[in-house]
Amino acid sequence: MGLVDGKVAIVTGAASGIGREAALLFSREGARVTVADVNDSGGQETVDLILGEGGEAVYIHTDVTNTSDVKAMVGLTVDRFGRLDGAFNNAGHPGQWSDVVDCAEEEFDLNMAINAKGVFLCMKYEVEAMLKNGGGAIVNTASGAGIMAPTSMVSYTASKHAVVGLTKSAAVDLATRNVRVNAILPGSTWTPMVEAAFDGKSISPEEVCKNMPMGRFGKAIEQAEAAVWLCSDRASFVTGIAMPVDGGQYIWLW
């Protein structure tokens, strides 16, 4: 039996990177999966990969800043699979490199909308569905920037601090209702989003690795392993944590 055998899970931002690896791992560990993203081709490809391995999955286009989209995502999951047990709210936006003076208001609003409001909306409607079948578990993707303050990342840092706050608040409110809520804090992890962030920058990935205790980027599957474990019954007494998955990066670098 897998870690989440017989359960039903939603993964947002599942068209690539950490989200795709998590969707695949949920399936390999026994869950039926709703794959959600705004990248339709990438999201369907994730579903096809799951189906190709003998799993069950469905894709739905979901803008996590849009209430109707989020409600439809949860509704489809329950209609298709009969319940909702776990959710990995992973969709996010990397932001721009800017300090509080240079950060455009539009950039700040975009980061807060996707990274913070998106997590809020997903939890709001996921929890409603989970409570109907006795409870569940939620994992939100924050960042080391949710507990520290990297330079020139003001909007991203603010939004990821908000994710940690939302996680802790929801965990306290739902602790007696059998819904656990946790966050993972990925360190520098090599994904298409991170690769794109280096495009045109003066600093190279190799230079960044020099400032990591393990001397390398994390792998998307390493983040997925943490998320799936936190959604499993193996983590039944774990709630409200902001768990670094970073190879020691945030106790050393910042």
Structure description:
By secondary structure, this protein is α/β, with parallel strands linked by helices. It has a single domain, classed as NAD(P)-binding Rossmann-like Domain (Rossmann fold). It is 46% helix and 15% strand. The chain is built from 9 helices and 7 strands, in the order βαβαβαβαβαβαααβα. It has a 7-stranded parallel β-sheet with strand order 3-2-1-4-5-6-7, with helices on both faces. Helix 1 links the parallel strand 1 and strand 2. Helix 1 packs across helix 8 and helix 4 packs parallel to helix 5. The N and C termini lie far apart (40 Å). The model has no long low-confidence stretch (mean pLDDT 93).
Write a brief structural summary.
The chain has 254 residues and is an alpha/beta fold. The chain has helices at residues 17-28, 40-52, 67-81, 105-132, 154-174, 192-197, 205-209, 220-231, 249-252; strands spanning 8-12, 32-37, 57-61, 86-89, 136-141, 179-186, 242-245.
Helix-strand sequence? EHEHEHEHEHEHHHEH
Q: Report the CATH superfamily.
A: NAD(P)-binding Rossmann-like Domain
From the N-terminal CA to the C-terminal CA, the straight-line distance is: 40 Å
Q: Give a quick account of the main beta sheet: strands, pairing sense, barrel closure.
A: 7 strands, parallel
Give the number of helices. 9
Low-confidence stretches: none
**Secondary structural class:** alpha/beta
Which strand-content bin applies to the residues? 5-15%
* CATH architectural arrangement: 3-Layer(aba) Sandwich
- The overall average pLDDT, rounded, is 93
